[in-house]
Amino acid sequence: MLWAVIMAGGSGTRFWPESRQKKPKQLLNIFGRKTLLEQTFLRLKGGVPKERVLVVCQDKHAAQVRRLLKIDSRQIIGEPVGRNTAPCAVLAAATLLKKDPHAVLAFLPADHLIENQARFRKVLKTAGDLAERTGQPVTFGVRPAFPHTGFGYLEMGRCLHKGRQGLAVYHLKRFREKPGLRQARAFVKSRRFLWNSGMFVWRADQVIRTARRYHPGIYQLAQKITSGPAVRTMKTYFPKMKNISIDYAFMEPLKGKILTIPVDFGWNDLGGWQVLPEIWSADNHGNVCLGSSMLHASRGNIVSGRKRLIALVGVNDLVVVDTEDAVLVCDRRQTERIREAVQALSLRKKWHKYL
Amino acid sequence: MLWAVIMAGGSGTRFWPESRQKKPKQLLNIFGRKTLLEQTFLRLKGGVPKERVLVVCQDKHAAQVRRLLKIDSRQIIGEPVGRNTAPCAVLAAATLLKKDPHAVLAFLPADHLIENQARFRKVLKTAGDLAERTGQPVTFGVRPAFPHTGFGYLEMGRCLHKGRQGLAVYHLKRFREKPGLRQARAFVKSRRFLWNSGMFVWRADQVIRTARRYHPGIYQLAQKITSGPAVRTMKTYFPKMKNISIDYAFMEPLKGKILTIPVDFGWNDLGGWQVLPEIWSADNHGNVCLGSSMLHASRGNIVSGRKRLIALVGVNDLVVVDTEDAVLVCDRRQTERIREAVQALSLRKKWHKYL
To answer: In chain B, where are the structural domains located?
Structure first.
């Protein structure tokens, strides 16, 4: 049966000052009336029933996650520390395998935006069936809209199957690291590359099998955790897990045996403030504004506010974000430096309240 | 006797969003622990006694002015509408002439900054004596530090007197309008031009006499106001006054009969956010910051905040001002546009609360 594993452990400093340690990106509701986590959960409706959803999140967010999604506490795995996605995937697989030896898991980041929900469920079903039948991981690749240098790419190999409704299945030839701009351009031009969306579907028994073979440490710790009293063993063993991503830990060693489906459901990873113009329309001067703002002789700005008025006068290409206790003004082309700024905040105690 | 007339009627939109209709520039205390009005009042101490100070302000600020300065309500002239400086000067002269037929008046804007208070009082005394003896208006000119295009200039004529302590008196050859950059550069180079500080000392009887001759309308209305019951006549006659500055109304027609003293007491007219680097020192990257701020990879910015943290990331040459209900982000070289922005705010009712 198809299960969903929502990966909600991220900290999301790229949306600072809206995102904070207590309220990471997946818990923000600035991208719609509901939080990204809720949106991720709700778009499964009609595809995966509520009871077959597992959420992996930071320990400290567990109560909030349960309140938001109204799910059983046994459907939440709270991580005491961050250990990237591989330990999280193995733990989820080990947990669900006990309930359903034929479990097929859809691993879904909790902080992405998807426009066409029906299409998403259609792809999910196809991928679920495929993964169940083949035992191979099925990754979701997004046709690149432009040469993005912030994503990993999936290089498509042989076409395995061209289905109805435009859904095709390819062998995955290679994972490609985040490319430079020149290489990204070549990727886009060749039409053989897809953005790695980070979503994939895989049978639980295969996750475990792969873990045992390539990362026995993670496998053994996951076994210990799932066979002991939940909370205590988690605190004891989870921190010993290797900090490694699914891509590095399992996908790399398996290359040649991975499938990929090019998807077209209007995906956005919300990689930072700079993506807002991709999801909201700009005014005549290229400004995208959320909240109360007054722009005078200003172009190409991204503004996110709340109650306070944000007035821009004679400025271009800025990100301006106003929150209750902090204001950010950043060059729109340098949003990756917000991470550095948050790092700088962590160095001074008096600024810790803004983290 | 020397009296001081503090002209505190301005609205000061250039410091928006700190300055508002209810709290114009002269009532701001971001330039020191006390408001500019209080600073103007306090620096007279030792030069003009408290009882010989008259404040002209907007009607709606009268109560606040009285509370701040702890002066008698008869020492305040509240204007029901703004009519620039000429009506204000004539009214002050007419009022004080009734108390002291030999009154000499020092007209002082309430919203300037002066560094060397002792020097200021020294100049004031010299100018007072000179004005009393000659009956001529004595203007204060500031040696230009750079070719400012936002000031009027005083062109010095013949030197009348070179006193001790570097105080000299010149005939004023001409008033010069705000020059273009090229002309301003020539002004500075020639060393014969001074910035018009807007401060001047003049005998009350001469103010009245000049008004009667060149602007009989203003003279007559001022006579009516000072001979009737204060508040009611003010409301009736003051709005009929011509809206005109002292420079245009009286100084222009008197040219050739005006004196000027080059002053050196560290004057700043606080013409807008862009002057902050002139009065506060910048950090190693040319940023001037007031309040709580965190600057990362940012240069040449002017930041004014309060409680909230202001974070700048990868931005240069901006003015960023954070207040309780509004945030301003403006190009440092375009601060004169703040006035346009405030104008734009006045066009929409939902924004009136920010005026």
So the answer is: 2-271, 274-354
